[in-house]
Amino acid sequence: MCGKELRRPGESGTGGFRKVQERRRGEPWDGKQRRKDQRQQETKAVQSGGGESDPCRQLGSASLLPCTSCHQLPAARQRTGPAWLRPPARSAPAVPLPAPGAPSRASRSRGRWGSAGSRMMHSLNEWLWWHEYWLPPGITWEDMKESEDIHYPQPQDLLLSIPCTLLLIIIRYLFERFIARPLGRKLGLRDKVRLNAPPSPVLETFYATHSKDPKKGELISLSKQCDLPTRKVERWFRYRRNQDKPSLTTKFCEASWRFTFYFISFFTGLAVLYDKPWFWDHRKCWVGYPQQPLLPSVFWYYMLELSFYSSLVCTLPFDVKRKDLSQQIVHHAATIFLICFSYCANYLRIGTLVMVIHDASDCILEPTKIFNYMKWRRICDGLFIIFSAVFLITRLLIFPYKVLYNTYYYSMELYQPFFGYYFMNALLMILQLLHVFWSCLIIHMVYRFILCGTMERDLRSDTEESDMAEEEREQMREKEKNGTMHFSNITNNNCIRNSGVQQLNSRAHLSNGHAKDR
User: Fold this and answer.
1) What would the pLDDT profile of 144-179 be if each residue is shown by its tens digit?
2) To pair with 74 at 20 to 30 A between CA atoms, which of 97, 142, 188, 414?
3) Considering the domain 201-244, what is its CATH architecture?
């Protein structure tokens, strides 16, 4: 029944709504007057002294509200009369109080979200470590249970590389600061004096946001904004680019640190693998796979390599920037993924071969850079020839045969392909493509070495721009534009020829005259 039907004539607004509510509760229509009379009766009963025995009265309480001590209503407010006159009992809903130590509603909601998150993480963990991804068909994680004497690689072991990475970064900082830098000074290494670019907010903003090498149209617009000649603007950018390039001391320190590590790592790998059967016969890599126990020496060799490449990734923004920076990033990422995956999937024997093959040429490359920075040409040229031979042999011959052919064909003789098989070979192929890229650079450098007789510089490094070279290039451009280059070359050649003929004639006259005098 709606409230509109219950209203009588003259009932409107809030009062009419209150009367409707009173009728719903069973109260008469004159409920307001009834409540007023009831309050007057209660007041008279209290004043007459009938409530002295009431404990509330004894306490001096004249309140008509429910007593908080006895939890009962006063006698004057007892519900009497017919049922249709009594208001319905309206007791407060019983809200159970939380027990001491019980979780609150917020904590229970967090618990629900936490349980959902834990279930999601549990399902993700089960999906990630599903045995068909990591192990050959027919092998489960139950077959890889450890015992007191036999230990297998565990994924949580790789967390040890995090503190080892931080330790290597600290060791590198101390090595470069207190060993490499003083050693370079004693060996006579001196940095070139560079001219700093004068302060210019407009040019600095353009250099940082747009381009480090502006084109001709941009140079003209910048010269108008700064009210400077175009030549000075171009010189400013040349000075600014030279400021960002690393000094010889910085390059020397980085190459010294890498040489020290690669030297230690290479001979550590040889010491670890010298007595292992798979080092001499690569077919032995698959004997007993994947139930191949983890040796302590192999474990620490893995931690050493993984920590080093992780430290290179951390210090990559601060290292010397070369032209193959993107290739270096791909190489480091592929190497870290390869080390981690080969450890979790127990490809330890293949992983050790990959690491020792890479270190063989790297420990020769770094001293080549060091002697190149020190201008020791003969030693640098000799090491460059040795490095080129070792790199091309190890990366283009030994690596494809010992590693790629081994993982791609020999493993299929024992097990059918699975996800780990494809993922491992994909990472190895990425490394091989990088080997081909760097081999092309090395072959080009060897070609230039044969033509020039000496190794001028690393093709991946940027050379400093000098004012003389820039002025010579500008003069050449102006001559080519004016069409005087060809004419000057012809006149110079004719002058050289004429002077040469005159000198020969004078020598002939002198010799003849001397002969006649004799």
Assistant:
1) 888 778 889 988 999 999 999 999 999 999 999 999
2) 97
3) Orthogonal Bundle (1.10)
Provide the CB-side half-sphere exposure for 191 (13 A, CA): 15
pLDDT averaged per 10 residues in sequence order, the chain, 518 residues: 45 50 52 70 63 45 46 45 47 50 54 68 79 82 81 90 96 95 91 86 90 88 90 90 88 95 96 94 88 93 95 89 81 91 92 94 93 90 94 95 90 84 91 93 90 64 49 52 45 44 41 38
Residue type, 360: A
Query: What CA–CA distance (Å, rounded) separates 70 from 56?
Result: 8
Q: Look-up: residue for tokens 């290494």?
A: 189
Contact 242, 235 (CB under 8 A): no
Question: How many Å apart are CA 58 and CA 46, to the nearest integer?
Answer: 12
Query: Rounded to whole angstroms, what are the CA distances from 343 to 293, 300, 350, 351, 423?
Result: 12, 12, 10, 8, 13
Q: Which letter does DSSP use for residue 154 in this model?
A: -
Buried b (16+ CB within 10 A) or exposed e, 147-163: eeeeebbeeeebeebee
Domain boundaries, the chain: 1-41, 150-189+247-452, 201-244, 475-517
CA atoms within 13 A on the CB side of 419: 10
Cβ atoms of 340 and 309 within 8 Å: the answer is no
According to the 3-state scheme, what is the secondary structure of 288-309?
CCCCCCCCHHHHHHHHHHHHHH
For CA atoms 27, 29, 34, 35, the dihedral sign is positive
In contact, 316 and 332? CB cutoff 8 Å:
yes
Tens of pLDDT, residue by residue over 431-481, are 999 999 999 999 999 998 888 876 655 545 544 455 445 545 555 555 555
Give this prediction's pTM.
Answer: 0.66
Residue 470 burial by CB count (10 A; 0-12/13-18/19+): exposed, middle or buried?
middle
CA distance 380 to 367: 8
Query: How many CB atoms are located within 10 Å of the residue 314 CB?
Result: 13
Q: Give the whole-angstrom CA distance, residue 263 versus residue 239.
A: 37
Give the pair of three-digit tokens for residue 273.
């693998």
Largest CA distance in the chain: 172
26: left (phi over 0), alpha (psi -120 to 50) or beta: left
Is 194 strand, coil or helix? Answer: coil
